[in-house]
Recover the amino acids of this structure.
């Protein structure tokens, strides 16, 4: 067991959903899937994105893809064309999630 | 009935590269070319263009693309499905017929699917009790009804199929769903019925994989170093079969990467609840899909389950919601962040000095290069330079423009090392508010029309 970033073994993609974003993260074997299901709790992800996401987070599981999907509400500084932020579509949120460190 | 059709998905959004569709037509076999030209904000821009010119309001990029490909498309009988009609499919139809005439192509059948644009009908619909409350927060439409810019229902696959059945080789739609650009040809070719929910769900998954073009063939992929030849990245070709099973592939010799992982990456893009992906034709369960590599550059998807759709269409409305402006300067180090913070304070201070104050929620300051895309996650405390990016938004256009005039003066009246002011003063632009709602399906009637060049 060593502390590693998710980016070492997981992949992710993110995009906008209204005034929030979705972050899908997936792995390539069932052991890692059990690990991310255990480690990536809503509370952990909420704490990780504390300076980006100001609303509730919902987690969904897609076992066929060995994936978790997180919906982050109020994470874009406004929806549609309202946001003034550089990353108004949350394109970077997936890469941000992969910075989380876990014991593996 | 054909046992297989090949659908190339060549355009992921308004502004995507013209090389996608041009190369799909030229570099390998396809039966259909599916093209998405719309985004939520696009419709409002198109309504504005149409209000100034009755022949405008569609994706002119589509006609430019056909200018480069129509001869081959006509020769080889490739069918084209595009939501390039925007808010004016008739004008787009005329432009395509005009182009065919110019090229001397006779007998080309071009069709439109109309009826999704409900902007003019909104007052009557609301009066008749169709309230179209905001799906996200429940607000009544009356909050923004006098500021509406566009209103469109998301149309499904069967309207596209109807236009194909009427003989169209080129189908121009307004606001159909992205997956319907793929589901339409499948429903038409394989004789699917509206109750074939599993098959329609499979086409929804196929459409979702294809709808962002190269984003399923190595674009925006986490392990980008594994992707070969980004320059000639291949666009997806969906190989559909009558039972709904399909294979995602790309033309031989193209660049990019197509694996189970690149396909899953795209399946997760803009995903909500993967168990219940709602569309006009069905509710698709993305967790039921079996995704497997069946060869080089071949990923097969099977077993997708679907269920009945709801009685409502999703409607996308947009409205004028004030003004905004953003601008940027580069602040060279040493002490780049410290100086950038000072610069921002100077701008707000000078504006306030001149009686122009913005509320906290109307102002934005970013130090690009110090960690704005990964706030609180990855940050740099002393980069050699940062880009100071500032913005405001509010209902008063003059105030927004006043902000825009106070950024560039920092070059001579701020700390040293302020540069990179190309682009001049930022100007106020419209903020387009987005209003998602639901509308009973019986209130929307689509119609198709086919003309021949």
């Amino acid at each position: 067991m060593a502390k590693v970033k998710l980016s070492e073994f997981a992949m992710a993609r993110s995009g906008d959903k209204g005034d929030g974003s979705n972050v899908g993260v997936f792995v390539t074997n069932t052991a890692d899937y059990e690990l991310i299901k255990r480690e990536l709790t809503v509370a952990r992800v909420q704490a990780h994105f504390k300076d980006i996401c100001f609303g509730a987070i919902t987690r969904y599981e897609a076992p066929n893809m060995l994936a978790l999907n997180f919906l982050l509400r109020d994470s874009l500084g406004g929806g549609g064309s309202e946001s003034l932020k550089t990353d108004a579509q949350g394109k970077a949120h997936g890469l941000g999630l992969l910075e989380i460190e876990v014991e593996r | 009935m054909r046992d297989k059709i090949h659908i190339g998905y060549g355009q992921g959004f308004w502004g995507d590269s013209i090389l996608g569709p041009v190369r799909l037509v030229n570099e390998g076999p396809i039966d259909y070319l599916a093209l998405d030209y719309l985004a939520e904000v696009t419709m409002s821009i198109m309504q504005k263009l149409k209000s100034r010119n009755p022949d405008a309001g569609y994706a002119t990029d589509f006609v430019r693309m056909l200018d480069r490909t129509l001869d081959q498309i006509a020769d080889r009988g490739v069918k084209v499905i595009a939501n390039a009609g925007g808010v004016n499919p008739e004008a787009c139809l005329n432009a395509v017929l005009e182009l065919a005439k110019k090229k001397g192509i006779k007998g080309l059948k071009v069709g439109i699917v109309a009826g999704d644009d409900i902007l003019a009908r909104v007052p009557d619909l609301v009066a008749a009790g169709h309230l179209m409350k905001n799906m996200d927060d429940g607000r009544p439409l009356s909050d923004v009804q006098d500021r509406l810019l566009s209103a469109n229902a998301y149309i499904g696959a069967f309207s596209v199929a109807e236009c194909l059945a009427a003989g169209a080789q080129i189908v121009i739609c307004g606001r159909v769903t992205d997956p319907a650009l793929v589901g339409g040809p499948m429903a038409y070719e394989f004789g699917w019925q509206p109750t074939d929910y599993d098959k329609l769900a499979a086409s929804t998954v196929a459409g979702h994989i294809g709808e962002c073009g190269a984003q399923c063939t190595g674009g925006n992929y986490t392990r980008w170093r594994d992707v070969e030849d980004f320059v000639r990245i291949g666009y997806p070709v969906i190989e559909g079969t009558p039972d709904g099973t399909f294979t995602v592939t790309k033309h031989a010799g193209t660049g990019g990467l197509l694996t189970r992982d690149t396909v899953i990456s795209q399946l997760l893009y803009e995903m909500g609840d993967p168990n219940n992906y709602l569309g006009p034709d069905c509710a698709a369960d993305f967790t039921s899909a079996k995704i497997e590599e069946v060869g080089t550059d071949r990923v097969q998807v099977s077993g997708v389950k679907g269920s009945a759709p709801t009685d409502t269409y999703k409607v996308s409305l947009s409205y004028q919601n004030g003004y905004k402006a953003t601008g940027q300067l580069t602040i060279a180090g040493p002490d780049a962040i410290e100086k950038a913070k000072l610069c921002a304070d100077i701008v707000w201070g000078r504006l306030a000095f001149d009686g122009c104050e913005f509320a906290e929620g109307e102002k934005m300051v970013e130090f690009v290069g110090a960690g704005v895309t990964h706030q609180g996650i990855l940050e740099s405390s002393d980069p050699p330079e940062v880009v100071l990016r500032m913005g405001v938004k509010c209902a008063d256009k003059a105030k927004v423009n006043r902000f825009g005039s106070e950024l560039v003066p920092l070059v001579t009246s701020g700390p040293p090392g302020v540069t990179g002011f190309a682009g001049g003063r930022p100007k106020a632009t419209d903020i387009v508010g987005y209003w998602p709602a639901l509308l009973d399906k019986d209130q929307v009637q689509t119609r198709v029309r086919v003309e021949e060049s």
User: Anything to note?
Assistant: Chain A has one domain: 3-103.
